[in-house]
Amino acid sequence: MPEIRISQTQFQSEPGSPAPEAKEKSDVSEIRRFLQSRGNSAIADWVFHGLMVLCALSIFGIVVLIATELVRRSSLAWAKFGFHFFFQADRDPITHLPQYWDPVNGHFSALPFIYGTLVSSFLALLLAVPLAVGLAIFLTEMCPRALRSGLAFLTELLAAIPSIIYGMWAFFVLVPLLRDHVNPWLIKSVGWSGLFNDDNPTGLGFVSAGIILAIMILPIISSLTREVMSAVPHSQREAVLALGATRWEMIRMGVLRNARIGIVGAVILGLGRALGETMAVTMVVGNSPEIHRSLLSNGSSMASVIANEFSEASNDLHRSALIEIGLALFLVTIVVNALARILVWAVTRGASRQVN
Amino acid sequence: MSETGSTFRPKMRAITDHLVTGLAVLATILVVAPLAFIFVYLIYKGASSLNWAFFTQMQKPPGELGGGMANAIVGSAVLLGVASVLGVPVGIGGGIFLAEFGRGTKLANAIRFTADVLNGVPSIVMGIAAYSLIVIPQHHFSAFAGGVALGIMMVPTITRTTEEMLLMVPHAIREAALGLGVPNWRSVLAITLKTASPGIITGCMLAFSRVAGETAPLLFTALGNSFWSTSLNREISALPLQIYVFALSPYDDWHRMAWGGALVLIVLIVLAVSLVRYVTSRGVLKGAS
Q1: How far is the alpha carbon of B247 from chain A, nearest alpha carbon, in Å?
Q2: Pairing mode of beta strands A90-91, A98-99
Q3: C-alpha to C-alpha distance for A325 and A355, rounded to whole angstroms
Q4: B190-240 per-position pLDDT tens digit
Q5: Is there a contact between A315 and A196 (Cβ–Cβ < 8 Å)?
Q6: pLDDT, tens digit, 9 for 90 and up, residues A20-50
Q7: ipTM (interface pTM)
Q8: Is any Cβ of chain A less than 8 angstroms from the Cβ of B40?
Q9: pTM (2 decimals)?
Q10: CB–CB of B121/B149 below 8 Å?
């Protein structure tokens, strides 16, 4: 009701106008009183806005906090080994064999873990990328509408399944399958290359890790590729089709060419996931800190060594070295993810502007 | 070139076209078949090992038949409770800022970008951070540390889904609220947030179910516990941790338990993902727009 009264007083004051300032003043105080009776909205708004900004800024805070904690706790290993930690290994004085990782005798080098992470991740990309892009092409360009939502739902679901469950499936189903059927065949047919000549009786190793990683990153790569491809405006497709192109030529020239940066981004994002994947790899990679040429031999990755050894680290230096590996993982995944996001964003943003 | 081209190239092009179509279909089958197989296998293995005792009894020593994962389920509930108390308000607040206050500003873009990047940071790194923040000063493993690690992981996911859901609320509703003289904070909380609440709740459920399956950050924060414990200040068991221990053990009965636990996690995730899908496909508003 106060509002009505205000307008009335204003209306009355206009013709006479004996003391407009005094009137206005009383009006203001009336509005202020009205607002205060319902809580002072100006201050409340300010507080609310501040709180929300604080929540949003906490995301920066988390990143900074993680970085500082990791740097602080890894300073022991950093002071002792420096950059050598990532590039060099101690050698046994007698046999001249490299001693990469021997916490009891104080040999620490991240080399075998970096090697293992890179090998398993690239193996995973090699297997996953063609399939993921194929799936995305099928889903965006060829798939009947009825099937599309079902397949999209399935891939969404599979992206959400925890890595421990993939690891368990790999451990109980994939590894025996590889050990009994695939690995002997690989050794026999391509063993000469030196990549598959290890008669590892366990079936664990980089091949198993690469395959399960490929299965795990497939949904992510494929759904992002799909997003990027559907961001390509329809006019592009129509233009290429109007020139008499077949469907594949339309996809190649109209869609893939426009979406290629974003697809690279999706692949890099998949790489980021593969680099940091922990549980599934830990369960099937074999966990031995060595470098072998053969992909069938046991190995270890950066995440898996942390998962395996951290809770029972033998001394502070050991723990510090593990945290340093964690720091490296953190920095690498931050860079890789940032790069991927920028690439995907470049395509989807440009495309939506063209559509509008 | 054009003479000969006109005779054989259309054929070649048609063949290439069919070939590629075939390859794409093949890729789809190659992707979907193993994934569907994993899914069916999990349900088959898990369903045969779930029974009432699984949810009500404690784990038994190897060799003894029966037993359940009650302590792990309760442990997961405690950890997720702590994680939600920490992660959900902050995540929703961040989402509100991105959608309501910071739309289009540089700060909002930077935060959105950081949230996406943080989403891709390996979960084991969160575990190390929580270890360094809480376990080292306290000198012992604790459920609280595990909850903090999981809570940190929930924030970016919830922020992004909250933002997406709030952006789906039509502007007219905000304007109507503000036009009635409702203060901004009240319009955001009581009108915009309430309108989008089904979406935000399911978004939180999705983050919740993702975090429920996380093992790596708990390995050296919550550590695991084979006994009944609900104390925040002590080691606590969790479903994924217990699955990890059981799966790598040599006992068949424990493997069975692990499959059962995996099925519980899967059901949680299927529920969350389908709810999110249902809400987003229906739109935030039930027909008001």
Answers
A1: 7
A2: antiparallel
A3: 45
A4: 889 988 888 898 889 889 988 999 999 999 898 888 888 888 888 899 999
A5: no
A6: 444 444 555 666 566 555 555 678 888 898 9
A7: 0.89
A8: no
A9: 0.86
A10: no
